[in-house]
Amino acid sequence: MPSLEQRKRPAACGTGFNVRLWCNTDPCGIVCAVISWFLVLYAECTVVGVVVYPWMGLSPLGLLHIAIFTGLCFLALVSHGKAMLTDPGAVPESALPLALAHASKDEIARLEEQRYRTCRRCRQFKPGRAHHCSICDRCVIKMDHHCPWVNNCVGLGNHKFFLLFIFYVFVLSAYALTLVFFRYAKCINESCPTYGAIRVVCLILEAVLFGLFTMCMMCDQYSVITTGTTQIDRLKGETADNLGLREVFGGSDCKFALHWLLPVNIWFPM
Description:
Layout lengths: L3 H5 L4 E2 L6 E2 L4 H30 L3 H26 L12 H4 L3 H8 L17 E4 L4 E4 L3 E3 L4 E3 L4 H26 L12 H31 L3 H6 L8 H5 L21
Parallel strand pairs: 1-2
Antiparallel strand pairs: 3-4, 5-6
Helix pairs in contact: 2-3, 2-6, 2-7, 3-6, 6-7
């Protein structure tokens, strides 16, 4: 639990109260986050430098593939960064029940005598659907799980960025496998240069492994979005009102909009 001194002195970076920049200092999470960036950049360098450029050069089609793959890598990395450095929905230190927050002084005195839900670990007010993360050491609203790959909890504040990250990793994996297949399909009957063969094999293994992993994650997250219940909610047998896609992606309705696919902050019209 954050000490009294930590609460009075906001840190520049961390997961405590009133920090300037939300970031988790968990060593395992930092290693996993670095690995995530390395794998995306490795795929970018291998696809562009070993697969596309030696095959198509700087032809219009080659430049198109390079631009698309590089753009997808950029979106994946930005989504990862936003998922990692965005407050996932941690309950503020000053949070109070709605009835208490909008009450008069006399009502506050009466309501404070009543017990309201508090966290046993951080001893703060615990709103409905908030769960305590032992790694972030904070209660997070609509917490789904703590993901080491983004080194952060996945909650109300960064759910969209997490979804975009796994979506773009899946698309990159499928795109890389498609390019490799068409590049080397003719090698069955013809001899092909062996330059970068080991890197291509590693790329195939990476694309298959993380393509399947993110596909499973997207199937699970589809259930989370359509039912409105997170993994922790399901484990505890809790139910909640489902606001659908708008709760995750923002906007005024559930109609698809371009900002759904971009790692920009969600917004709700007043």
